[in-house]
Amino acid sequence: MTTPSPSLPGGTWPLGDLTVTRFGYGAMQLAGPGVMGPPADRDAALAVLREAVALGITHIDTADAYGPHFTNELIREALHPYRDGLHIVTKVGATRDEEGGWPPAREPEELRRAVRENLDRLGLDTLDVVNLRLGDARGTVAGSLAEAFGTLVELQRQGLIRHLGVSNVTAEQVAEARSIAPIVCVQNMYNLAHREDDELIDELAGQGIAYVPFFPLGGFTPLQSSALTTVATRLNATPMTVALAWLLRRSPNILLIPGTSSVAHLRENATGAGLPLTERDLADLDEIGC
Questions:
Q1: How far is Cα 278 from Cα 283, in angstroms, rounded to an integer?
Q2: CA triplet 172, 102, 269: central angle to 5 degrees?
Q3: Which one, of 69, 84, 21, 29, lies nearest residue 259 by Cα?
Q4: What was the pLDDT predicted at 6?
Q5: pLDDT tens for residues 98-135?
Q6: pLDDT digits over 33-70, tens only?
């Protein structure tokens, strides 16, 4: 289902009736330290967003809770009016507290308010994709998503949301969401070292549903990091670009949203994700998750 892209590695993938580059950009790091407050360098943050679009990226991931609010305001300032074919994916279901925590905000009125705030700050009449974020900062939490997801379905029927997705979810919650309404993406913790979603990724690929991993280098042990560094050194590449290249090879429905607040780092990631990996490289990398 992918289509070759002349400028970015991995080609493209459909999110419902939308098409996005598999190499995207995650805007979370544009906020201040701890994803709180404004960026230290506002002009640099705006430059990163503009460079992402200049590179041909058509998938930008965000949330109004980042900052809170600052990231979406930066996106609007840098990119509005939005170029045809550029798609912004946001998420709701958590807010921020004064200590920098991520308390849940999944009551119906909280979700309605979050959707309105995303629309207002991004300057949109309809959000392309909204992910419902479940669980907590430590990971997934079992339980029904029916009421919260049903609220987003209601907003979709009102024309405020085009497509739906889920984030930080169990396989059971994915199945429950799909029994209520179609989803176009799942955004979960997954990388070389944390591969609990292997079966889910393959199932979603067969259904044409995107899988968007976050923290491509998160949660590695020192031994796992050393193994990744060994492969990266052999390839004269950085560990991050090797991890991104492996994810693109892992399954055609995987979409990347690496974040950065540096134009140079953004370019490095966009080039490095296309790193060719040999069978030896893949075998060595696959052992990291064993």
A1: 9
A2: 80
A3: 29
A4: 53
A5: 889 999 999 999 999 999 999 999 999 999 999 999 99
A6: 999 999 999 999 999 999 999 999 999 999 999 999 99
- Angle subtended at Cα 90 by Cα 128 and Cα 254, rounded to the nearest 5 degrees: 85
Separation of alpha carbons 27 and 72, rounded Å:
9
Marked catalytic residue, from 66, 82, 190, 211: 66
> Has 25 been annotated as catalytic?
no
Using alpha carbons, select from 199, 141, 196 the residue that is nearest to residue 166: 141
pTM for the model: 0.96
CA-CA-CA-CA dihedral for 167, 168, 171, 172, to nearest 10: -90
Q: What is the pLDDT of residues 130-170, one digit of tens each?
A: 999 999 989 999 999 999 999 999 999 999 999 999 999 99
